[in-house]
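Example record

One chain of 575 residues, shown exactly as stored in the release files.
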Amino acid sequence: MERGGYLKKWKGKIPIALIYPNSYAVGMSSLGLQLVYSLLNRRDDVICERFFLPEESERPVSLESGRPLNDFPYIFISVSFEHDYLHIVKILLAGGIEPFAGKREERQEGRPLVVCGGVATFMNPEPIAPFVDFFLVGEAEPILDDFVDFLAENSGTSTPRQLSLEAVHKFEGVYAPGLYTPVYDKKGSCSAMVPEPGVPARVKRLSLAKCERAGHSELLTPLAEFSNLYLTELGRGCSRGCRFCAAGFIYRPPRLWDADAVIEGLKERPTEVSRVGLLGMEMAGGTTLDHISGYILESGCALSFSSLRADRINDGLLNLLSKSDLKSVAIAPDGASERLRRVINKGLDRGDLLTAAGRLAEAGIFKLKLYVMVGLPTETCEDLQEFIDLVAAIKQKIDAIGKKRGRLTEIYLSVNCFVPKPWTPFQYHPFGIGRQLENDEMGTVKEALTNFREKISYLKKGLKDVANVHFQADKPENALFQALLSRGDRRLADVLFDMAVTNMSWKAGLKKNELRAEWFISAGSDAKRYFPWYIIDHGIEHDYLWQEYLKGLRSASTEPCDTSICRRCGVCGER
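Predicted structure tokens for this chain:
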């Protein structure tokens, strides 16, 4: 059923377990996991086998050979989402691996080395840092081969501590948490990370500078969430600079692969696969999309994607959508009002959204998904009412089109609770509270949850009489746990361990470990505040993020990033 996997003999090879801490269906939809799996298995001296989250009480075994986790001297983990942090601990425990790196040496003979990467870890690695020997910070291509060579040459003769010291001096982009000690202030916040003598104060995030062939699906399976869909990336990062979006900051500088590189990636598609998914549609320009769309049409393929920017819909793309028989498309206003879209620097107005909805309905779309966030900085009920009015206006526009063709387009509204993410301008803003808090202020979990529930209820009530609008909302408690994990520090490792061992709730875990959620998610900030994720060096000036936060509070816009001339944030050189 699966195409593209590797089955190798073990003799004379370096065994590496590659864990995706979720189900097979979710993991096999991750292009990052597939990239690492392929890079490792292309080496003749490596055998890399995959592990996924097993069923409760089952022992994790590799997909390829059925071997147990503790047969592998190297355990690599690819983690994309904070909610999978708990699964990491569960998989290690179920596989007979001591979770805490500092205890593995004393408790486990022939201890494995745990190496972790993935986008969640270069946003903020700290909540899982006590479980990990090494983080590879950033994109895999610039470092993976050299790091595997390093492990093969040195791990048999060096202690884990010696290996850590050698690695951080040899490589940029390698973070060995055991060489750093966190410091906490009286307010319960992490105030510094102190490296051992001679160890770099921060760890540089690595990125791929050029690409001749775009990243693409290496394995295909009908059991993935995107069943038998051949994925190809259009680039990495995004130049728009939306203030809520971590990807627009942690992947800087934004890189849009040229159309030829994308087409080279598409050419690797197995001939029997006819569905193509493009990742990064939000950043692609019209000319690039036209070129790629033409190739996809000539190849007889159908197009699929997660969402479109409302102001990037052109005739060529609409023609491809129509011929792909695609019936469902998502666009993301994200902010409820035009003012809020300036706050978040989204760059879309009411006219963009109405025009996009109308053109998509005319192209044959029967299911229009709209994504919006509640709980954004400075948000009021007036903003929410403007969104209710916008949905009604979109419905009126697409209904007129639907009546002419004999079938109406339905609207599926997804309402999500805003979580202030690391490395965005809104990292300074408290979770669930509309107003800015001073450095000596602290909001409460109760206030945040109440605000979210009231806003979701306001939208639901305002839209209840609009026909063919399907309403789905995030649970505020789930968003709170996500905020805790995304903004937390090493103290959360004990909470995750207790949750994995005893099945206690995260609230009970915080209480057991004498921690308060407010320390991580609701504290006020100023320009000088230290965050635990500052151990990573993305090249972004902290003052730039602070000034962008203040601009957002003023509803002031910032132009998209042009890497040929822009020096605002510090990533591309001196400001």
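Notes: The CA atoms of residues 185 and 228 lie 51 Å apart.
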